[in-house]
Structures are given as C-alpha cells and as structure tokens.
C-alpha cells in the first residue's frame, strides 16, 4: 500500500472558509461535546424519573416504567433518530411540523432529544438497579422515622444509590459521547461528520480519522478522570460500595 | 387505656400465606413486653404492623389512641412517635452520626438545626457515644451503631419503642452494651415491645412475654409465669432449646 501520509494537511485551509482542517475538527468536537452533554442531561433527568418510578410500590407505575425502558432500549438508535427527525414532524399538526422543520438547530436538537431518550432507558435501568441493591431495611428505616416516600428517596435512597451507580453511569456517559456520532446521519457536523468531510475534501482519509480517533480518546480520558475525581469526592468514609 | 392495642389482627403476604392469625394483645404505658418464638413465626411482621410498615388485612391496631389502621391516619406523623430499632441497625451510611440523628427531627418534626443538634448530642451522650458524633456509621462497631440507632429513635421523643432482634446481628462481646442501654430505657418507664431471644434480658426487665408460633400468639403471660410454667407444649420446647445455650 503506498498511502501518502501528510499530517500537514491539518493546518491547510479547509474549503468551508472557516480556517484550517484542524479548526474544522475542533468545530466538530464542540458539537460533539454540546450534543453529548445536553443529551446526557436529558438522559439523567428522564432516566432518573423512570428509574425511580420502577422502584415505587405502585404496580401500574412500575409497568409503565418497564414499558418505557423496553421501548427506548430496543429500537436501534439510528431508527429512533430518523423517527424524531423525519417522521414525527410529519405527524404533528401542519404548522407545528413546519416550525419544527425550520428550527435553526434542527439536527442538534433532534440529536439531543433522540440520543437523550435512548440513553435515558439505560440510565433508568441503572437507577432502578442502584436503588434495588440498597438493603430493604434502609427504606423501612426512613419510613419508620416518619419520612414520606419522597423524603425517603431524596435523603436516604438516592444519595446512596447514585454513589453506587457512579461507575456504571460513567460508562453510560461515555456511551452517550460515542453515540453522538450517529447524529451525522441527520446532518449534524459533529466530530465524526467533520472527519468525514475533511476526508472528502482532502482525500487524506487516514489523517482525518486518526485525528478524530485521538480526539475521542482524549475526550473519554477527560470524562473518566473527572468522574473518578467525583467518585473520590463523594465517597463515604467507612463505606465501600460492593466490597 | 393501653399504649398499644392489637385486636384480632390478620395479615397475609400475597394471597396464600397468612403470616399473622388473629393476633390480640396490648401493651400498657411503661410496660416492657418481650416477643419470642421460632424463626419465621411472625414476630417481625407483628411489630412492623404496629407502625404500619406492614399493612394488615383484618383487625385493628391502636397506638396512643391513634387508630393505625384507619385510612384517615397521618402515618408519617404516627411513625415519628413510634421508635423503631432494627436487627441490622439501618443507619444511613452517607450521613454523619449527628445527621443521622437530626434528619427526622428536622424533616419530620420541623425542629431547627440548633434544636435538633442539641437533642442529638444529649442522646449521644446518654448512649455513651458523644465522641463519635462526627463519624460516619461505617466507622463504628456494630454495638456502637446499634446504640446510635437507639438514639436516632429516641431523639424523636417517641411514646413507645419497638425493637426487632436488636442484638442478633452483633458479635457476642457487643451484646451487653446494647442491652444495657435498653435496660436503662426500661427503667425510665419507656413503653417497649422487644423481639429478642435474650432471655436474661426478658427475665430482668420484661413485665410480660409473648410467645409466637406459626403466626399465632400462643402464649401471653407475666414473665415469671412464662418461665416457671409455660402452658403450651410449643413454648416449653422452645424454652428448653433456647435456655440450653
Ligand atoms: N415481605 C414478605 N413477603 C412474603 N413473605 C414474608 C415477607 N416477610 C416475611 N415473610 C414470611 O412471613 C413469615 C413470618 O416472617 P417474620 O415476621 O419475619 O418472622 P420472624 O421475625 O418471627 O422470624 C415467614 O414465613 C416469612 O418467610
Ligand atoms: Mg424477624
């Protein structure tokens, strides 16, 4: 194979007129971060609500939570993005549909919603599992001192459950970052999309995707280190989760 | 007027398994009642029904003139007045000892932080753990944790205390430090219902002993009578087994 390596391409001006190819990748990185962080917030909020619902002593609510998880977990992410992007706007009343289609950041917002809901099903499973690993007596002890169910969750169950969940939540956050690349299929110029555009303009396919790979790895390293620091910060003296 | 009155209580787990069968008893103010019986006989279930941690399907329970089983009863308010101590302590691991003792006072009773702290320190002193106030539960021994758990119940100014095998998860050398606190409490006139197999404790402080088997209250007698001449064969058998140790 006689591939002509040319790393200097990164500093060549890109045809989009906004600086170099490297700038283009950095732009992509910004969208990747924005999409991942916003989708993660959606996932955390909805995942926590559904995850908690699945542990409440109301059967119908738990069933509803189970159905939510199965729905969003079992449809491929790509299909969900297409549904949100192409199908749902058509199903809305005409004016709404037009409004949605003309949204300035349509692909970004769709990616946030689509990836957010997809990941929320996985967060919900972690939240339920985290709550269920706590000793049954903890809920009882909270109830016995007179706390309401909401207070028991707020002050007793969730603080411990989230601590136990931090390692699996870290990997779900990393999954969110990886999954954000799927958004290139609906036209979001995030990191993978930018790398592909760079390859198409410059024909330097290896440089483009090597650079993207390195950036993804660095991003994951930053998240992992950050989460480890958080784990240490909130660790409970005398209590070792899972040991 | 009894402090705790339990009348014809029936309870099922699911639709098939009856855990309590027509149980009737009562506890007078200041009375200490020990509940014993083989494992699985329904002792925990019975005391959990008293503060409605377990719902019942038949009968009536009244605590300090409040009808536990009435749908109109404010359960959190009732539970705040009934102290409960569990076999496995169930302290809140992420909270300091002080916060374990303040949580209920502040969130349920609406006391100020200062008020709650003062009360917490007073009770920690009483169970001999003032020096450990700023620690976390995981940094204490089992016996210390159980004493904190008793203090956590007492800060709420309960009208009665329920204990579910408070010493059976403890190493033998720690049992007495917990029993001592309970004996003190009994002497001060606290109304107590104690599930335990510590027959020494029962002899020393209990006014009455209830013996349960297979969901039934088989025997309910003054302590002396119970130990001197248990009426049922099942109680005799149980006592002979347990007093061998
Ligand atoms: N949450 C529950 N669901 C179903 N069965 C239960 C539950 N809790 C207890 N039981 C059953 O009820 C019976 C009485 O249990 P329990 O009150 O814990 O007995 P004890 O405290 O005397 O050992 C046992 O047979 C036990 O298996
Ligand atoms: Mg028991």
What can you tell me about this protein's structure?
Chain A has 243 residues and is mainly alpha-helical. In chain A, helix 6 packs across helix 7 (149-179). Helix content of chain A is 75%, strand content 0%. The mean pLDDT of chain A is 92. Chain A is globular, with a radius of gyration of 22 Å. Chain A contains nine helices and no strands. Chain A has a single domain (17-234), classed as MetI-like (MetI-like fold), CATH 1.10.3720.10. With 245 residues, chain B is an alpha/beta fold. Chain B has nine helices and ten strands. Chain B has helices at 43-50, 75-80, 97-107, 113-126, 142-154, 172-187, 199-205, 223-228, 233-243; strands spanning 4-13, 17-27, 32-36, 58-63, 66-67, 82-85, 160-164, 191-195, 208-213, 216-222. In chain B, strands 6-7-8-3-9-10 form a six-stranded mixed beta sheet, with helices on both faces. Chain B is globular, with a radius of gyration of 18 Å. The model of chain B has no long low-confidence stretch (mean pLDDT 95). Bound molecules: adenosine-5'-diphosphate and magnesium ion. Magnesium ion (MG) is lined by residues 43-44, 164-165 of chain B.
